[in-house]
Amino acid sequence: MRVLVPLPYDVSNLAHGRNLRVVHLLRHLAHRAEITLLAATEAFAEAARGVLPDVRVVRVDRTAAEAAPNHGSWLLRRSLGFIGADMRLQAAVLRSAAACDVVLGFDLLSLPYLLAVREATDAATICDVIDDPWLTWRSTPAAMRWSIAGLKTAVAVRTLRAVALPRLDGVIAVAAPDAASLACVGRLVVGTVPNGVVPDTSPAGPREPLAVMTGAMHFPPNAAAAEFLIRHVWPRVRTRLRSTDWAQLAIVGCDPSPWLKRLAKEAGVIVTGRVDDLRAWLRRARVSVAPMVSGCGMKNKILEALACGCPVVATSRGAAGLPCGRASGILTGDTPDALAAQVAGLLSDPARAEQIGHCGHQMVREKFAWEGSAERLRTFLQAAIHERRIRIAQRTGAYVPLWCREACHAAS
Asked: What is the average pLDDT across 238-249?
């Protein structure tokens, strides 16, 4: 299977959930497929080579002629313009797609390049949107949703979701709720490929009475969750523990705003900023907290905590797409009191926290290995290729080999 991947962004920052997904899926897919990654710039190409040494990375020829896109209606063109596109990357994708079986894009930023080759070649086109963009928009705070920029985003997202995505041969989501939402769009073939994790093999040490929340703090859902945790949950935890000094809360992640730092300082909370080794904090902590009040999709922060044997307390939104309960290492609550009760219970009972954390570690080893996710992706791509070949053969009146029809049926 020959896979072409357009890359209009830098994938080297693995603190970004999208980049982490792209890199790990392509690393493992490269064992079973021939992958060519087309990078928009030399900087993007060098960054990709650093994290994907087994993948063929090609820099776009910046002197080549640009492609002239024709994406249909004025509204669709305006919506694609909202995303933006590199015309020379689009031209390179058009030239290279004819020699490939499937063109695979990650994130909506890849959509213009997929649409450009959809009618020009026989290659199947697949977009891993990761999270349903409409659910993402709906989960943002109301003030952002109903601002001028928010309304423009809504129109673009609705158009791309309803008009552009159904033109492709398939769409992939990271979690079942996102896949179910996308499946409501007519003529859209949707698959689910969950995120994965690399289980921690370092020896477990004694855990401190420490709660941590991890994540990039410039990401609005993480910033909103940190504020909710500091303002509404942590004071209730301290009240339940009847102490103000022996338990601590740390907000661990890059780019915290000055406002968040001031809020945390007033509440006696540690804000670390960027750290060299996130897992070092998760090995120390007795509990990880994911009190998401916005956003959608599967949360890497939860998988990373469980991979280190650290139990997780999360809201239902934060744990979406993941098995919950003590046997899975994830306890849930959707009110400040419910979350505080779970966090305080784990902080005050080290043995219980260790047991639940061990269950979570076993769960992610069995269900969320990157190898399994990459195999699900490969199966979905193979099915899309077979379906595409059958449709082309039916349109042209060509003979469809029996093996192709059987493979398509088996893959679906």
From this structure: 82
**How confident is the model at residue 245, as a pLDDT?**
66
Contact by Cβ (8 Å): 41, 4: no
Length of the chain: 412
| Contact indicator for 374, 104 with CB cutoff of 8 Å | no
Extents of the domains making up the chain: 2-196, 210-367
**Intrachain domains 2-196 and 210-367 with the same fold:** yes
Residue 91's contacts (CB-CB under 8 Å, 6 or more residues apart) are 64, 65, 66, 67
For the domain spanning 2-196, the CATH number is 3.40.50.11720
Q: Assess contact for 115 and 167: CB atoms under 8 A.
A: yes
Q: How far apart are the first and last CA of the chain?
A: 17
332: left (phi over 0), alpha (psi -120 to 50) or beta: beta
> Long-range contacts of range 43-52, CB-CB < 8 Å, 24 or more positions apart?
43/10, 44/7, 44/8, 44/9, 44/10, 44/11, 47/10, 47/11, 47/12, 48/7, 48/11, 48/12, 50/12, 51/11, 51/12, 51/14, 51/23, 52/11, 52/23, 52/26, 52/27
Cα of 285 vs its chain's centroid, Å = 24
Token digits for 72? 């249909």
Give the span between the Cα atoms of 59 and 204, in whole angstroms. Answer: 43
Give the C-alpha separation, 260 to 237, whole Å.
19
Q: In what order do the strands lie in the sheet with 312-314?
A: 270-273, 248-252, 210-214, 287-290, 312-314, 330-332
Contacts of 54 (CB under 8 A, 6+ apart): 27, 30
- Within 249-369, residue ranges assigned H as helices are 258-266, 278-284, 300-307, 336-348, 350-367
CATH 3.40.50.2000 describes domain 210-367: yes
By three-state DSSP, how is residue 153 classified?
helix
Whole-angstrom distance, CA of residue 104 vs CA of residue 3: 7
| pLDDT of 124 over the 50 cut | yes
Q: Residue 151 to residues 56, 154, 298: CA-CA distances in angstroms? A: 40, 5, 25
Q: Give the Cα separation of 328 and 244 in Å (integer).
A: 30
Show the CA angle centred on residue 262, arms to residues 261 and 267, nearest 5°.
Answer: 95
pLDDT at 148 over 80: yes
List all residues 6 or more positions away from 248 whose beta carbon is below 8 Å from its beta carbon: 208, 209, 210, 211, 269, 270
36-91, pLDDT tens digit by residue? 999 999 999 999 999 999 999 999 887 766 655 666 677 888 888 888 888 889 88
